[in-house]
């Protein structure tokens, strides 16, 4: 592996001797950011120009996204970005806004962690059995999938009045350009897309009572998505014709496009609030065994399939830290991770995919309860709780990748970790130990890099070949390699712990 390198970006114009400059709007569940990427035939330089919080709001018993605050952050970021050749938008999946006949938003979108979807899977199953739903869409059961949100909203006045539905990144693009569309990679998270035809499933829509006319036309990563409106140019100080380009608007689709893999036998783990662990395939796996294993077939850039399992991710640790802070025991993350690294390995582990960990609040207590139920020692203090979380996530990564290889009938030789978790060195090392495979960590801002790369390809700055893009990222980015070791538990200890989690899940 080449030595780690750092890259710098000068605040140049949209095009310079070093390449063209693009703006990536990357909206995450806890924060949003606008980044600029300067791309040339042999270089990619990324710079964060603006970061802003993403704080949900509970009103009238419903948890909402504050999308106007997010849009304000996008405009502020584009102002900081300066001249760019194009803009692309990605975000989390499943959530949406409804528009009336005048194109006006009908209320703030509901947060996927809201409890309105409880019982909706059973309600839909009355008209469409889960086996048939999976065989048609290939999407893993998650209680907040868009199809269940729409089932919950079926009798609402808001949905009855809606003329159009826009997923969150498409809503932001619409406000920037006045042009409406539905980008395919994010549409595939709705559980209304057939991954074989890469089009809407009328069978599922009819069973769920969903009007497909709500969705504007599908578009693909790289398609034009309009130009910044005059009012947006005034707000941001940008000039001329600034195109918006459709990217892999589901942030994981963009992140996977930026995995710097130079071998076909790779797996990826996109880390952050969620861990999404899986493989990049050319066709979906729609077997009953795949459904039972709770794997999803989301669509990716270049006609690929993201065959993966959603795991609770660093949400577990984030919620623990919020709880400790509310109790007057704030923790400094770096010190906490150092202390956790010295704790006994695999003393207590939990199933990181347990739906009990999905809601916010009281996370340390819920982890303690899970340990008690399984007869394991309860973590004693924040360091042991943190070690429990990280050991459990590493095990969840192992189990997901074992299942993915078995179900897709393929083998892997290296695991690429991208996203915010690359900064957690302990988690990266534990993942290598648990999987018994080398882990290549980086880049942290994979979604933004994939966003930029799709724009650069669409505008002819770099070749339209995913393999060449990945080689460029591999040669350009600072990466770190972790080899499996026995410092945090023997291979036999990891195998026993994995078997225990399987038996209890």
UniProtKB/TrEMBL annotation:
Q: Name one GO cellular component term.
A: cytosol
Is Disulfide bond set as a keyword in this record? yes
Q: Name one GO molecular function term.
A: glycerol kinase activity
Sorted UniProt keywords: ATP-binding, Disulfide bond, Kinase, Nucleotide-binding, Rhamnose metabolism, Transferase
- Can you tell me which family this protein belongs to? Belongs to the FGGY kinase family.
Q: Which residues form the Carbohydrate kinase FGGY C-terminal domain?
A: 267-458
**What is the official name of this protein in its record?**
Rhamnulokinase
Ranges where the Carbohydrate kinase FGGY N-terminal domain occurs:
84-256
Instruction: List the taxonomic lineage.
Output: Bacteria, Bacillati, Actinomycetota, Actinomycetes, Kitasatosporales
* Domain of life according to the entry: Bacteria
Keyword Transferase on this protein? yes
Pfam families associated with the record: FGGY_C (PF02782), FGGY_N (PF00370)
């Amino acid at each position: 592996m080449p030595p780690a390198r750092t890259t710098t970006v000068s605040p140049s114009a949209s095009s310079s001797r070093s390449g063209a400059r693009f703006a990536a709007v990357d909206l995450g569940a806890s924060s949003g950011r606008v980044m600029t990427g300067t791309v040339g035939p042999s270089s990619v330089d990324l710079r964060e120009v603006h970061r802003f919080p993403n704080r949900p709001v509970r009103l009238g018993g419903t948890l909402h996204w504050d999308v106007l605050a997010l849009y304000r952050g996008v405009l502020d970021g584009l102002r900081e970005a300066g001249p760019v050749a194009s803009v692309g938008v990605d975000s989390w999946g499943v959530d949406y806004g409804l528009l009336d006949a005048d194109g006006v938003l009908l209320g703030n979108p509901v947060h996927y962690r809201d409890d309105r979807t409880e019982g909706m899977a059973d309600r839909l199953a009355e008209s469409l059995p889960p086996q048939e739903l999976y065989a048609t869409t290939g999407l893993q059961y998650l209680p907040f999938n868009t199809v269940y949100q729409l089932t919950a909203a079926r009798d609402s006045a808001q949905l009855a009045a809606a003329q159009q539905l826009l997923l969150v990144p498409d809503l932001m693009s619409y406000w920037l350009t006045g042009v409406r569309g539905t980008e395919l990679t994010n549409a595939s998270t709705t559980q209304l897309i057939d991954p074989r035809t890469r089009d809407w499933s009328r069978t599922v829509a009819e069973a769920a009572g969903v009007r497909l006319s709500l969705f504007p036309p599908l578009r693909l990563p790289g398609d034009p998505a309009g130009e910044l409106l005059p009012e947006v140019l005034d707000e941001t100080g940008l000039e001329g014709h600034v195109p918006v380009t459709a990217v892999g608007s589901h942030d994981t689709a963009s992140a996977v496009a930026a995995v710097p893999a130079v071998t076909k036998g790779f797996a990826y783990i996109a880390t952050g609030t969620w861990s999404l662990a899986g493989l990049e395939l050319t066709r979906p796996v729609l077997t009953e065994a795949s459904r039972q294993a709770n794997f999803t077939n989301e669509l990716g850039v270049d006609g690929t399939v993201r065959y993966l399992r959603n795991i609770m991710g660093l949400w577990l640790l984030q919620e623990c830290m919020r709880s400790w802070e509310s109790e007057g025991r704030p923790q400094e993350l770096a010190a906490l991770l150092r202390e956790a690294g010295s704790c006994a390995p695999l003393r207590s582990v939990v199933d990181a995919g347990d739906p009990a960990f999905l809601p916010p609040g009281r996370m340390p207590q819920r982890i303690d309860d899970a340990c008690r139920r399984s007869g394991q020692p309860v973590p004693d203090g924040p360091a042991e709780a943190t070690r429990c979380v990280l050991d459990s996530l590493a095990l969840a990564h192992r189990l997901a990748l074992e299942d993915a290889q078995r179900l897709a009938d393929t083998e892997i030789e290296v695991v690429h970790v991208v996203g915010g978790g690359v900064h957690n060195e302990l988690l990266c090392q534990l993942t290598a130990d648990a999987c018994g495979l080398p882990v290549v960590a980086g880049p942290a801002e994979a979604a933004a890099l994939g966003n930029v790369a799709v724009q650069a390809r669409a505008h002819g700055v770099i070749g339209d070949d995913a393999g060449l893009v990945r080689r460029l990222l591999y040669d350009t980015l600072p990466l770190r390699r972790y080899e499996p070791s026995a410092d945090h538990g023997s291979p036999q200890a990891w195998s026993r712990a994995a078997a225990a989690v399987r038996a209890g899940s």
